[in-house]
Design brief:
The chain is an alpha/beta fold and 446 residues long. It is 34% helix and 25% strand. It is elongated and about 90 Å long. It binds zinc ion.
């Protein structure tokens, strides 16, 4: 008080400065931090900041305790934002804290161990605005489960099962908030179980949880697993809620076979923007195109194999649901761009159609769809299993089982498996050419 009285002008000067310079007053930052989300992948935890505009930021790590600090320049959180309420698993990030620092906002992530941060920003893409992404990588490489190879000539047929979307990318959203990424994961898990229970088959899940994986990393995962087949599972939306039914797609690089196929491929390909892919992965995409050019010849064989397996799966799907398309459609889906692995994308239905959405949400229907995909794969592999696999070995030993599907005829089956109607009837003790859907018959070898 004494000081105030003796030097009134100085104090007034300080007060004026406080009022007149907005940078020092709270709430005057030009951007706002709207929310923070976290997604867990086996390799990293992704922390996503939703910010009202493009943001300058500084990121650094500190020890004792181990933490990552992110200073968002000229940014203030929206009223009511509570960093400690950000929901997350605690295996990598123990706690989230936040505090204003002058005109900036500081977020501190308390880490559970040594993690390597990588950060990048993403331009707005519906449904998101500007995002800052901080991926916290585990520095110790994850121990992969020990894989004991089967003896030569009796290896498993390996199927890469890809549940579409994930993490930042919910995929299509249907009535009552049903999300494609959740539905397709449930179907994928059921398919995984069926494959792993069948002798001679092994499933490899491309994504194992709720996180986003770039298209290129999905095809890479299939290659790393030495998969014989890649199956991507989706359930999409269309402008009109009336559209329904399942369909199957393969890759085309000569244009789409229909308007819907073109539209779907474009919307699926946009996933990398929504899910958030860092520049390194995007530039890696260029190398894939080069690889593709080199393997142009094997691409042709791959294309027809993809169409064939797609056809088997589509025909099985036709037994459990309405088909949106009666034949396998083709379009430029990025996720199907494996030059050497037959790849299909299964559209299990339209989540934008209210009754189909509620079916897709039910366990019984998910099971039916998974079963149809599985049986389609098995039918294809029973005649096309790669050499050196148990399934191929069984075929060579003679006899394989086949379940009759709608539209099958004995003569059609005979042509497909390179045998004769007479031989099939002989082996199965059939008196006539009559067969019924669901009947299991033995196809003689050779
Ligand atoms: Zn999708």
């Amino acid at each position: 008080m004494k000081y105030l009285c003796s030097k009134p002008t100085v104090v007034l000067g300080v007060v004026l400065t406080l009022i007149m310079s907005p940078p020092l007053t709270a709430g005057a930052a030009s951007r706002s931090l709207k929310s923070v989300r976290m997604h867990e992948s086996p390799e990293y935890t992704r922390v996503v900041f939703d910010i009202s505009g493009s943001v300058r930021y500084e990121l650094f790590t500190l020890e004792n305790p181990r933490r990552v600090v992110i200073d968002l320049a000229d940014t203030a959180p929206v009223p009511g934002f509570d960093p400690e309420a950000v929901s997350h698993a605690r295996n990598r990030v123990k706690a989230v804290r936040g505090s204003p620092r002058g005109q900036d906002y500081r977020v501190v992530l308390d880490l559970a161990g040594a993690l390597e941060p990588k950060s990048f920003t993403l331009e707005p893409v519906p449904p998101y605005g500007h995002r800052l992404v901080v991926d916290l990588y585990s520095t110790r490489t994850q121990q992969k489960p020990a894989f004991v190879p089967k003896p030569d000539g009796k290896r498993d047929v390996i199927v890469a099962v890809d549940a579409g979307h994930g993490g930042e990318d919910p995929g299509a959203i249907g009535p009552r908030g049903i999300r494609e990424k959740d539905v397709v994961m449930k179907i994928a898990r059921r398919l995984e179980t069926k494959l792993n229970q069948a002798e001679g088959y092994r499933a490899v899940m491309v994504r194992t949880g709720d996180y986003y994986l770039a298209h290129r990393l999905r095809t890479q995962a299939a290659r790393d697993a030495q998969a014989h087949l890649f199956v991507s599972i989706h359930a999409d939306a269309f402008k009109s809620p009336d559209v329904d039914g399942a369909s199957v797609y393969t890759l085309s690089d000569r244009g789409a076979t229909s308007e819907t196929a073109r539209w779907l491929a474009a919307s699926e390909n946009a996933s990398d923007l929504i899910g958030g892919v860092e520049q390194e992965v995007v530039s890696g995409e260029q190398e894939d195109y080069l690889l593709k050019a080199i393997l142009e010849v094997s691409m042709d064989a791959n294309r027809s194999a993809s169409l064939e397996v797609g056809d088997r799966v589509l025909s099985r799907l036709g037994g459990v649901t309405k088909l949106h398309r009666k034949r396998v459609e083709q379009a430029g889906f990025l996720v199907l761009k494996s030059p050497d692995i037959p790849s299909i994308l299964v559209e299990t239905g339209f989540i934008s159609n209210p009754s189909e959405a509620s079916r897709l949400g039910s366990a019984a229907y998910q099971e039916k769809i998974a079963d149809a995909i599985f049986e389609g794969i098995r039918t294809y592999m029973s005649s096309r299993a790669p050499e050196g696999t148990l399934v191929a070995w069984r075929r060579e030993q003679g006899g394989q089982r086949y379940t009759i599907t709608p539209g099958d005829t004995l003569s059609g089956i005979a042509v497909r498996y390179g045998t004769s109607t007479r031989r099939i009837k002989e082996v199965n003790g059939l008196a006539s050419d009559r067969i019924r859907v669901g009947q299991v018959i033995t196809i003689p070898a050779g």
